[in-house]
Write a structure and sequence with these properties.
Chain B: GO terms for molecular function: ATP binding; ATP hydrolysis activity. The complex is a heterodimer of chains A (281) and B (262). Chain A is of the alpha/beta class. In chain A, 37% of the residues lie in helices and 22% in strands. In chain A, a hairpin with a 2-residue loop joins strand 4 and strand 5. The chains are: A alpha/beta (281), B alpha/beta (262). Chains A and B meet through helix 8, helix 9, helix 10 and helix 11 of A and helix 7, helix 8, helix 9 and helix 10 of B.
Chain lengths: 281, 262
């Protein structure tokens, strides 16, 4: 018996035509209310891992191993059952709010749809729940935002709408994939703060995926480092950042810590710590 | 032109966009000078006017009013055919090399593109083939890869291609517009180091636009902080980083994500 919400065991994901697996025998556990970061570079397999958990991988992906949700196996789960899980118990915020929202539908209706799809509220009540939720993610004029189309909103507002959608059903687990990478630092800081507040209220666990270790360290208690599809190191935030065991992790820390490097001069680079293996390209 | 003549003089520059329901003043009475060889940072968030400002400085947009003087001559109100010296002298590197590089062109052709342009009419045009080999080596790419296509390179390498293209006409000024914002943090330092080396080796003037003040602090001597189309604070970078006067500058500094080690 465990208290794990999500248990990933020996998960591998391969795409046809690629010599190397995108995800290579990774294992990761997330307990109830726990906040875990998955840090890695472009192409490391971090987003593929998230999509595998969400059951959103392309049909040609070949998946082995196990992903269990509160004990139930997700790999091979029936679509109808998976759909109920998504958005209700597990939800996700993607990097690009412009592509994640339907451009032809007013944002309020899109938020309401998530609510209704998951057996939530009748139409009249839905509207007020939507406005409340938008207000909770720091949107000052929820009426106007609900009646706007996505293109009429700023990047920060769109990302807040997505966070509202992801949290409206108080999921047990929220997965965020580079949720602030497309935003300015000032907007990023505000969105991260709102996300923290939203998670506190909903009591949800978090899987936070990013290439930016400084951002990850603001959000999570545990960190797993993914490199070329493998988790090379994992531990508490303090263990990983103060006593990294893998030289690749040490390199990520050095490159992320711009604020603590003296101005001017040469910045530390990953190569100072870790020589990349020439895998593929 | 005296030796202490700044390379750029920007005076009372205004740009109003009037195609929306209400006119928007993107750049609002901005004045400053850039001494030759300076590394100037321009910081501000989306909508602060920084991108509109540098596009006007590069002659890609026309100001509504005000003047821009490059190397002693105004660039405002001139026809394209009169701007060859500006086009050779000022080059840009954009944020996203995925969209700024033509996916159907070979790397060698991308880098040599500025050398094939009309801007060389009546002047000595460098030989593209030898220049490409030279430039690729200088930005840390393998000249042997010159017949490959952009998608065959990583994000950091694609930005090196864009930098090589910008250096092709031997410009005096390099303008980097959020040039590392789309890169992984782990790749960012390599590209910043490359900018630093190139600017020092070739005595370039660098105009480095970013929303991240901690990056600007590493690259620049001086900084302009823009907010809602105006310059709200300007001066030497260390002074502003350590002792910001304007509340918006303080907010920018506070927003920089820092490693939380505890």
């Amino acid at each position: 018996m465990t208290d794990d919400l999500l248990t990933i065991d020996d998960l591998s994901v391969r795409f046809p035509g690629n010599r190397h697996p995108a995800v290579d025998r990774i294992s990761l556990r997330i307990g109830r209310g726990e906040r875990v970061g998955l840090i890695g570079e472009s192409g490391s397999g971090k987003s593929v891992t998230a999509l595998a958990v969400m059951g959103l991988l392309a049909d040609n992906a070949k998946t082995t191993g196990s992903i269990r949700w509160q004990g139930d196996e997700l790999l091979g789960m029936h679509d109808a059952q998976y759909s109920r899980l998504r958005g209700e118990q597990i939800s996700m915020v993607f990097q690009e709010p412009m592509t994640a929202l339907d451009p032809t539908m007013r944002t309020g209706r899109q938020v309401a749809e998530v609510l209704r799809l998951h057996g939530g509220a009748p139409a009249g009540e839905a509207r007020s729940r939507v406005l409340q939720t938008l207000a909770k993610v720091g949107i000052g004029d929820p009426q106007r935002v609900a009646d706007s189309f996505p293109y009429q909103l700023s990047g920060g507002q769109r990302q807040r709408v997505l966070i509202a959608m992801a949290l409206i059903n108080t999921p047990d687990l929220l997965i965020c994939d580079e949720p602030t990478t497309a935003l300015d630092v000032t907007v990023q800081a505000r969105v991260l703060e709102l996300l923290q507040g939203g998670l506190d209220l909903a009591g949800s666990a978090l899987l936070f995926i990013s290439h930016d270790l400084a951002v990850v360290s603001q959000m999570v208690d545990r960190i797993a480092v993914i490199y070329e599809g493998r988790i090379v190191e994992s531990g508490t935030r303090s263990q990983i950042l103060n006593a990294p065991q893998h030289p690749y992790t040490a390199g990520l820390i050095a490159t992320a810590d711009l604020a603590n490097v003296p101005a001017g001069g040469r910045l530390p680079v990953l190569d100072d710590f870790w020589k990349r293996t020439d895998r593929g390209h | 032109m005296g030796t202490d003549e700044p390379i750029y003089r920007v005076q009372d520059l205004v740009r109003v966009f009037s195609h929306g329901p209400q006119p928007v003043t993107a750049v609002d009475r901005v004045s400053f000078e850039v001494p030759a060889g300076q590394r100037l940072g321009i910081v501000g968030e989306s909508g602060s006017g920084k991108s509109t400002l540098i596009r006007m400085m590069a002659g890609l947009r026309r100001p509504s009013s005000g003047d821009i003087v490059f190397r002693g001559q105004s660039i405002v109100g001139r026809r394209e055919s009169e701007l060859a010296w500006l086009r050779r002298g000022v080059q840009l590197v954009f944020q996203d090399p995925r969209s700024s590089l033509d996916p159907r062109m070979k790397v060698a052709d991308i880098i040599a593109e500025p050398l094939r342009s009309k801007i060389w009419k009546g002047t000595q045009r460098p030989d593209p083939a030898s220049r490409v080999v030279d430039l690729m080596a200088r930005v840390g790419l393998e000249p042997a890869d010159r017949n490959r296509y952009p998608h065959q390179f990583s994000g950091g390498q694609r930005q090196r291609i864009a930098i090589a293209r910008a250096l092709a006409p031997s410009p005096q000024v390099l303008i980097a517009d959020e040039a590392v914002s789309a890169l992984d943090v782990s790749v960012r330092a390599q590209v910043l180091n490359l900018f630093g080396e190139l600017v020092a080796d070739q005595g370039l003037t660098l105009i480095f636009v970013s929303h991240d003040l901690s990056v600007v602090r590493h690259m620049c001597d001086a900084v302009l902080v823009m907010h809602a189309g105006r310059i709200v604070e300007a001066g030497p970078i260390e002074q502003i980083y350590l002792d910001p006067q304007h509340s918006y500058t303080r907010q920018l500094i506070a927003s920089v994500p820092r490693l939380r080690r505890g």
